[in-house]
Write a structure and sequence with these properties.
Layout: H1 29-41, H2 46-49, H3 60-63, H4 67-79, E1 84-88, H5 94-103, E2 108-113, H6 116-128, E3 135-139, H7 142-145, E4 155-160, H8 167-174, E5 178-187, H9 203-217, E6 222-226, E7 232-236
Parallel strand pairs: 1-2, 1-4, 2-3, 4-5
Antiparallel strand pairs: 5-7, 6-7
Helix pairs in contact: 4-5, 8-9
The chain binds S-adenosylmethionine.
The site of S-adenosylmethionine (SAM) has 19 residues, from helix 5 and strand 2.
């Protein structure tokens, strides 16, 4: 039957069945969607929300979480009442600062960044926004930094947003450090569609795919891959 509706026909807002009443010019669709989300959610642009030094190498739009994802992470941190957060991949510190605000004055965020150029900007941003006392930046490759974290340090929320090739490795290494009632948030797990390919086109896509297979096997967690942005994977530890 040609008009059979499948289970995947209404996953994201711009699919035909979810926007068949949209009547304005197609080129206005995404700006209107973003504006509507922003207004309904009271989102502010990161450059208004924070005093932000940026990188001359990569733009915020290219590398940092967008305001919708940032609000989601803030909301999730509040919902799990996170006091202690770990992030892999600081870039210029936008998500770390968002999470630092979410954990409150007595909370702590540890963020790991491999590249000194980004790390130095991030630290200056933490200072400029009065958040330096809540955020510790650990410079280095996450695979080398993770084993050096204090052996008794645990987290309520772990945000994995660094090199996709090692996502599954980070998840497995950090599992014992996530508190019961805590949440893993793993960004970009669809990796531009590469994680859906039968044969991965890139090493990053293969890494994202491996993370998804690892999540599939992690049956003790309540899991959801949100079809938002580049794919956001949530794993809640009961
Ligand atoms: C997508 S950006 C992070 C964006 C940031 N979390 C945000 O939402 O604003 C990924 C970051 O991971 C860093 N990175 C890449 N490989 C890494 C590694 N092996 N260890 C730690 N950080 C790494 C990159 O330099 C980059 O700054």
């Amino acid at each position: 039957m040609s008009d059979t509706i499948t289970v995947f026909d209404k996953l994201v807002p711009n699919q035909a069945l979810n926007n068949d009443l949209y009547a304005d010019p197609p080129t206005d669709y995404f700006p209107a969607l973003f504006r509507t989300i922003s207004e309904a959610s009271g989102l502010r642009a990161p450059r208004e929300e924070f005093l932000l030094e940026e990188s001359s190498l990569r733009s915020l739009e290219d590398m940092a979480s967008n305001p919708v994802n940032l609000r989601l992470f803030e909301l999730l941190a509040k919902l799990v009442r996170a006091r202690s957060v770990l992030e892999i991949g600081s870039f210029v510190g936008l998500s770390a600062m968002t999470l630092a605000r979410a954990v409150g004055e007595s909370g702590r965020v540890t963020t790991i960044e491999k590249f000194p150029h980004f790390a130095e900007i991030a630290v200056r941003n933490f200072q400029a926004n009065g958040l330096a006392d809540r955020i510790e930046l650990r410079l280095g490759d996450a695979s080398e930094v993770i084993p050096t974290l204090p052996s008794d340090q645990t987290f309520d929320l772990i945000f994995i947003d660094g090199n996709k090739e090692r996502y599954a490795e980070y998840f497995l290494a950090l599992e014992p450090r996530l508190q019961p009632g805590g949440l893993f948030v793993v960004d970009d797990v669809l990796f531009h569609g590469d994680a859906l390919n039968t044969v991965s086109q890139t090493e990053k896509g293969a890494g994202a795919r491996k993370m998804l297979e690892t999540a599939a096997a992690a049956k003790s967690y309540l899991r959801l891959l949100l079809p938002v942005g580049n794919g956001i994977l949530l794993l809640f530890k009961p």
